[in-house]
Amino acid sequence: MNAELMMLISGTGAFLVTLFLVRQRRMRVKYALVWLALSFGGLVVGAYPRLLMEFAGWARLSFPAAALLVALGLIYVFSFSVSLSLSQAHRRTTRLLQEVALLEERVRELEARDSSTPFGK
Amino acid sequence: MRVLVIVPAYNEEQALEPCIEALLREQPDVDVLIVNDGSGDGTERVAAELANACPGVRYVNLPINGGIGTAVQTGIIHAYRNGYDCAIQYDGDGQHEPTSIADLIRAARESQLDLCVGSRFLDDNDESFRSTPLRRVGIRFFSGLISLLCGVRVTDPTSGFRLYGRRALRLLSAYYPDDYPEPEAVFFCAHNGLSVGETSVRMYARVTGITSIRYLRVAYYMVKVTIAILVDRIRTREVSIDER
Fold it and tell me: For the whole model, what pTM was predicted?
């Protein structure tokens, strides 16, 4: 099996898995878009390997080095976006946590006040 | 003057009751809010018993452990929304001396401070617990860094015994640092135009439990807090703090 065929198979596989997860609503479309684009890119490079060779020539890199550079660049971009999303999710979770705790305290206080009033009035 | 004492508590089942009893014995007029930070022991039960037994004591339960910053900010939000004039952060492990609360209030009032930090290092004759020599080096480093970057001199920026006035409550309700937040909170307040000062307080070595900052975490603590303060320095200031 050569590199192009591997890329074709993995690109198709990644594309289908992403579509399946979106269809099952286990992945949001917002996040699926980048993975769909990436797997589509893998498919294209698998079908037309000359694209990557031309990029390697333009960047004055050998073919494996160019493939590695593209892969590392993508890994960096995706890891960075995950860190951003995690930070945002952490901020939101923290505020929700605090609001839940404060509301629970308020409910407890109101219930205690209510039960200490005759006939709950 | 309405004062709320915020007591963040994480796995303080043993220390919490004597801590609150000593606090109320010395400061019967303050309200107390225990913030149970998702403890895995009986802290929630002890907090509920104290709230039932003592009229001025209330408690909130964070359903999962959010860390000291989240716990303290929960108390700050509560104090701000309920119109308290000031809030005092007071550890639930019995390290803080309750009579020092009056000193914090007096110092904040006399010097018109928005944030008044309780310091172990202002009074040389005091026999306060002053941490280990290595930690004192770290404390001096943060003190120097804050002084260098914003001109405010606080000798004990890691102290968790401090008073927040209304303006600080307002600012910190919107943003409070997490992960070892004390030095960054001092810098954040000063950087955003609040008046920050300190007064001498007495502290004790913890009786039960263990400190959360050990071994490799010390290195992480130093690096993380230093970077956080440096990044705060290049941040734009928050919207104007006009409430006094």
Answer: 0.85
